[in-house]
Amino acid sequence: MASGREIKTKIKSTQNMRKVTRALEMVSASKIRKAQDLMKASRPYAKAMRKVIAHVAQANTDFPHPFLTERPNVGNIGIIVVSTDRGLAGGLNSNLFRRTLTTIREWQDKGAGVDVVAIGQKAVQFFRRIKGVNLIGTATHLGEKPRVEDLIGVIKVVLDAYTANRLDRVLLVYNDFVNTIVQKPTVETLLPLDVVAKELVAHDAGIKTEQSHDWEYIYEPDARTVLEHLLGRYIESIVYQAALENLASEHAARMVAMKAASDNANKVIDELTLVYNKARQAAITQEISEIVGGAAAV
């Protein structure tokens, strides 16, 4: 059995660890409300953009924008992965990366190459170690209030590659915030928009389009200018919404993980305290026995 001093040292270190986990739990609990407010404020705009794109993807236009047409042979895909900058969030990032690797293997089995854009320090560190994956862009340290301006650079890298036919499909992977307990790793198609429209209808996202109807729009000043501006804003809004969803998921996951860690620390402290009391009682009993034995010898 360990000595009383060793046990007391373990109890003290566990108590210090509990202070840290409690502090992190309280910090995340105070930040999650603001993160949820940002996320919920942006959701209606992202949903409205999806509705517009679902109709534009089926419209007839004189300008065949490359974002609108599905390419028959997918030789290369681009994946935008949105993760956290910090750890201590339970299995949030692990589940996300596991889902991403499954998607990557599925496309590699079809003979497609994979390019990755990593948003978040954890994604950057992870995909730098993965062989067979080309990391073409990174964005980190978005903070507690992510801005669209911080994401435009990596988004442009992907859009330029798609326009230049270096990518044939673009996917977005992020943690969708369901509630404080559940954060769901989600894979969505960003390009081409014809595939996006089909997925939105198939998943019953509140977007209904009639496949037999020919959508017609009047573009001012011209179709090319309007579509390039609209489609660029669409991609930016969806990636920005994913960053907000991931931020809310991060604080929720960290709050739950740190609470579980604090509860486990309490259990460990109780167990060590019991062991310490037993060791102390055994030591006292031994001392009494020695005193009684010495007195009897005299």
How does the SSE layout of this entry go?
Blueprint: H1 4-56, E1 59-60, E2 76-82, H2 92-109, E3 113-119, H3 121-127, E4 134-139, H4 152-163, E5 169-177, E6 183-191, H5 193-202, E7 215-216, H6 223-297
Parallel strand pairs: 1-7, 2-3, 2-5, 3-4
Antiparallel strand pairs: 5-6
Helix pairs in contact: 1-5, 1-6
Written overview of the protein:
With 298 residues, this protein is an alpha/beta fold. The protein has two domains: 4-28 and 254-297, ATP synthase, gamma subunit, helix hairpin domain (Helix Hairpins); 37-241, Pyruvate Kinase, Chain: A, domain 1 (3-Layer(aba) Sandwich), CATH 3.40.1380.10. The protein has helices spanning 4-56, 92-109, 121-127, 152-163, 193-202, 223-297; strands spanning 59-60, 76-82, 113-119, 134-139, 169-177, 183-191, 215-216. α1 packs across α5 and α1 (4-56) packs antiparallel against α6. The radius of gyration is 28 Å and the shape is elongated.
What is the structure about, briefly put?
The chain is an alpha/beta fold and 298 residues long. It contains six helices and seven strands.
Identify the notable features of this structure and list them briefly.
two-stranded parallel sheet; Helix Hairpins; five-stranded mixed beta sheet; Pyruvate Kinase, Chain: A, domain 1; alpha/beta; 298 residues
What is the C-level CATH assignment of the largest domain? Alpha Beta
CATH superfamily of the largest domain: ATP synthase, F1 complex, gamma subunit
Helix vs. strand class? alpha/beta
Number of E strands: 7
> What is the topology, as strand order, of the major beta sheet?
4-3-2-5-6
Rg from C-alpha positions? 28 Å
Sheet with the most strands, sense and barrel status:
5 strands, mixed
By CATH, the topology of the largest domain is: Pyruvate Kinase, Chain: A, domain 1
